[in-house]
Design a protein that fits this description.
single chain; 308 residues; alpha/beta; nine-stranded mixed sheet; 14 helices; 18% strand; globular
Length: 308
């Protein structure tokens, strides 16, 4: 057994959070503490009002931040400050362990002392659409792997692709690398992962560690999400420059086309092109956000608090 804490940013909690906490209680590898960093206390109070939350989840520590103070990197660093274990796991409040061995499997790669980060496979959640379901399978295959800086030659951005939807960290390396970059609009996980590889450490993708997590975003939501992705790439050329993301997007579109044809639903190709067009336009404009009026940038962004 390893000593590990789980850190979860929370915003407007829903029943899925309780399912997540219940599944964490049943893990073969228990968590010492579950640290919830909640945005806006009123939402959490309303959600737990009239419940026996504190007694039912006795190893859960809750801390609150104001909405204007939330930041993808800073807020997660704040959560880590409450952890004293040699390993910690980052999750989001809408990712639910698929079984009771999530933490056990997620921590296995740390048997290799050079592994500084391990991230889980994301399986489609209940009600996930066909296109999003295939995207999950495309980004999170069923085979595990270990990635190093050498892999950037052939994998490009995929070499340091990782996700804080569910990822484990070795604390001493995290401290050595000064944690997540503060004031990040998006991609705090990949920015950290690139630094990990540059420092000579390894990233593990552990396909046996599985969470149910997916979104059925509208085309405009995809646009806004990819706008922030483009902004992130523009703000951090030291991480993303020279490693184009567009080629991976084209490969996904081609694979998705083949998938829906095999599925016997070729009419989904029109939806695929519609959504992919919005994704690309959002990313294209996000990378060029400095040329856009401030009001337009804020309107296009999914993380509007970032711009205040």
């Amino acid at each position: 057994m390893m000593d590990v804490d789980v850190i979860i940013p929370v915003y407007k909690p829903a029943e899925k959070l309780l399912h997540l906490l219940d599944m964490l209680k049943e893990q073969t590898q228990p968590a010492n503490s579950i640290i919830l960093i909640n945005t806006e206390k009123q939402y959490f109070d309303e959600f737990t009002q009239g419940t026996d939350f504190n007694n039912k989840y006795q190893n859960v520590l809750v801390r609150h931040v104001a909405k204007e103070d939330f930041d993808h990197g800073t807020t997660r660093n704040y959560g880590v400050s409450f952890s004293e274990t040699p390993y910690f796991v980052m999750m989001t409040d809408d990712a639910v362990p698929a079984d009771h061995r999530l933490l056990e499997n997620l921590l296995k790669p740390f048997e290799n002392e050079r592994v500084g980060m391990s991230y889980a496979r994301q399986a489609p959640a209940e009600g996930c659409g066909e296109l999003e379901s295939y995207t999950r399978c495309f980004n999170y295959p069923e085979s595990s792997c270990i990635k190093s800086a050498e892999n950037m030659k052939d994998m490009g951005l995929k070499a340091f692709f990782a996700s804080n939807v569910c990822a484990a960290y070795r604390r001493d390396i995290f401290d050595e690398l000064k944690g997540f970059t503060d004031h990040t609009i998006f991609n705090e996980d990949m920015i950290y992962a690139r630094g990990l590889l540059d420092a000579g450490y390894l990233i593990a993708y552990e396909a046996e560690a599985v969470v149910a997590h997916s979104h059925n975003y509208s085309a405009f939501m995809q646009f806004r999400r990819n706008f922030d992705l483009g902004v992130s790439h523009a703000l951090h050329p030291e991480v993303f420059a020279g490693l184009p993301a567009e080629s991976e997007g084209i490969r996904l579109v081609k694979k998705s086309c083949a998938y829906v044809i095999k599925l016997g639903k070729p009419w989904l190709i029109a939806k695929l092109f519609w959504q992919s067009g919005f994704k690309y336009l959002g990313y294209f404009l996000g990378k060029r956000y400095r040329s856009l009026p401030a009001g337009v940038v804020k309107a296009f962004s999914m993380n509007r608090e970032y711009w205040k």
